[in-house]
Amino acid sequence: VNTHAALRGLERLPSHLKYFVAQDLSGILLKRGELESATVAIRSFKRLPENKDGLPKLVDATTEILRQEDQSARQILERIIAEGSAESPLALAELIDLDIRNDADISPDIALLAETYAFELKNTPDGARLLRAHVFASASTAQFQKAFGILESDVDSLDEKTNRELVNFIFSKLASTASDPDFLTYYFERLPSIESRLNPKTILEMSKRLLDLGFADQAGRLLLRIPPEMQTEQSKLLDGRILFEQDAFEQAIARIDGINTVSASALKAAVLERIGDETAAVRLYRDADQPELALTASWLSEDWLSLMDPEHPVFGPVAQLS
User: Fold this and answer.
1) How far is Cα 234 from Cα 204, in angstroms, rounded to an integer?
2) Which terminus of the chain has fewer CB atoms gathered within 10 Å of its CB, N or C?
3) What is the pLDDT of residues 202-250, one digit of tens each?
4) Would you say the C-alpha torsion 232, 238, 240, 242 has a positive or negative sign?
5) From CA 23, how far away is CA 44, in angstroms rounded?
């Protein structure tokens, strides 16, 4: 699209055509990031007698989002949704997207409205967009069974990219918000058939939750799905924790070699304490700002007198007396 030529052509159109073309053109320009040109098209639309109601339009909200004025965009979207107009379903989808990007809570009322619109518009050009919003809203409100059900029943309505996006979103929400029983139920029942669709971020979140629940073997197996070239310090550190829980101490140390963080120091200290090198463990626990663990390791060391913190209100004087 030649932007300047399109805007000139827009101004030459009769008003009844300009009413529709101006909205479409502004949307195209907004998607291309041409905010000022899109604003010109929107102003052309606003001046038309057909737009005499003066109500906010979806393009107004999109403009505010591109300007990073999310609060203003939210207010516009909420007004459009409340109107119950032809733009309300897409405004709802846009509001859900906005909340997802900002990690904001989605209310049950919004989730219910998304379900209603997704059903009503299922066989329309906007159907896939509303299905996507329905899955987002369902998973965000802990309706995981419903979210999985949508993917299964409407799989042909969604392209592969959207399907992967939704699978990862559901499992990410499971890892971060589901109760322990729900998380484990969906992990064992749902993951095996679709784990190949998980991206590294979701794999990391799922593996961490599994490890925290005591399923080190399952966490390690899932973590292997992250290709070597995509591994990060976080994934290596988590792998080190898994190896530690599996009593593979030398491998755990090797896995986190070169990682200089507080968490890595704490893990190295735990490994050293487990293999009997309490002296080195104490120093690392102190580096990791974990004085209680350092104190416990000090008592276990043969060199506990020199390791005991003289400033400790109870054990410092004991060590000095000894």
Assistant:
1) 8
2) C
3) 999 999 999 999 999 999 999 999 999 999 999 999 999 999 999 999 9
4) negative
5) 9
Is residue 22 a contact partner of residue 41, using CB atoms and an 8 Å limit? Answer: yes
Q: How far is CA 252 from the centre of its chain?
A: 28
Place of tokens 């002296």: 279
* Residue whose entry in the numeric block shows the structure tokens 């989002």: 65
In sequence order, the 6+-apart residues with CB closer than 8 A to the CB of 228 are: none
DSSP string, 113-154: HHHHHHHHTTTSTTHHHHHHHHHHHHHHTT-HHHHHHHHHHT
10 Å Cβ neighbour count for 73?
Answer: 21
* Ordered DSSP codes for 232-270: -HHHHHHHHHHHHHTT-HHHHHHHTTT--SHHHHHHHHH
Q: What is the pLDDT of residues 16-56, one digit of tens each?
A: 676 667 667 776 776 777 777 777 766 666 565 655 555 55
Q: pLDDT at residue 115 above 70?
A: yes
Query: Is the entire prediction scored with pTM above 0.85?
Result: no
The answer to whether 168 touches 199, Cβ cutoff 8 Å, is: yes
User: Do 193 and 158 form a contact (C-beta atoms < 8 A)?
Assistant: no
